[in-house]
Design goal:
single chain, 171 residues, mainly beta, 4-stranded antiparallel sheet
C-alpha cells in the first residue's frame, strides 16, 4: 500500500521496531506506517547518512553522528560514507579507510582491524553481524566481536545504493 509522501522520496527509508524514518533534502522525518503521516524530527539539510537500532535513530552530518531526540553525539574522522547500527553500536565506514565501531553505552570508538573500507557503498546490521557492499561488487559479513570478515558474494553488487538486513541477518 502507498504511504503518503514516501513514494516520492528518492532517499532510503529506514525501519526500527515499529517505526519508519526518511532522510530527505530537508532532514529526517518519522513516518507513521499506518497512516503515512510524516513528522519532521530533525531539520538538517546537510544530513548525509541515517541508521536505526530499534527505536533509536542516528543521523550523520560532516563526521558528527547525532542520536536524534537525545543530546548524544559522536565524531568520526575520515569522512563517513556508510553507516549502520545494531546491538547498541554504530558502525561507520570512512573514505579514509577505517571501519569504525562506536559503543553507545561506553561512549568509546575503535577502528575494527579489518583493513580499509574506503570502497564501501552501504552497510547493514542484522543477526549480530555487519554486512558491507563494496564498489568491487563484493558482499561481506563482518563479525565485529571476533573482528573477522567473510565473503558472502564475490560479484554482482557494484550498483548497490543501499543494503538492509533483518534482525535474523542474511540467509
Amino acid at each position: 500500500r502507498d504511504v503518503t509522501g514516501v513514494q516520492t522520496c528518492a532517499l532510503p527509508i529506514f525501519a526500527g521496531g515499529e517505526r519508519l524514518w526518511i532522510l530527505d533534502g530537508s532532514g529526517v522525518d518519522e513516518v507513521d506506517p499506518r497512516s503515512g503521516a510524516r513528522n519532521p524530527i530533525l531539520m538538517n539539510g546537510h544530513a548525509h547518512l541515517l541508521a536505526a537500532d530499534g527505536a533509536a535513530v542516528f543521523d550523520e552530518d560532516n563526521g558528527t553522528i547525532l542520536e536524534i531526540g537525545t543530546p548524544n553525539l559522536w565524531h568520526v574522522d575520515g569522512r563517513p560514507i556508510a553507516m549502520a547500527a545494531g546491538d547498541g553500536k554504530i558502525f561507520v565506514a570512512t573514505k579514509a579507510g577505517p571501519l569504525v565501531e562506536i559503543d553507545r553505552a561506553r561512549g568509546t570508538q575503535r577502528a575494527l582491524p579489518l583493513g580499509d573500507w574506503w570502497g564501501t557503498l552501504a552497510l547493514a546490521y542484522g543477526d549480530h553481524a555487519l554486512f558491507a557492499v563494496t564498489v568491487a561488487g563484493k558482499l561481506w559479513r563482518i563479525d565485529p566481536v571476533k573482528a573477522e570478515k567473510t565473503i558472502v558474494a564475490m560479484d554482482g553488487w557494484q550498483g548497490a545504493i543501499d543494503l538492509a538486513a533483518s534482525p535474523a541477518g542474511l540467509r
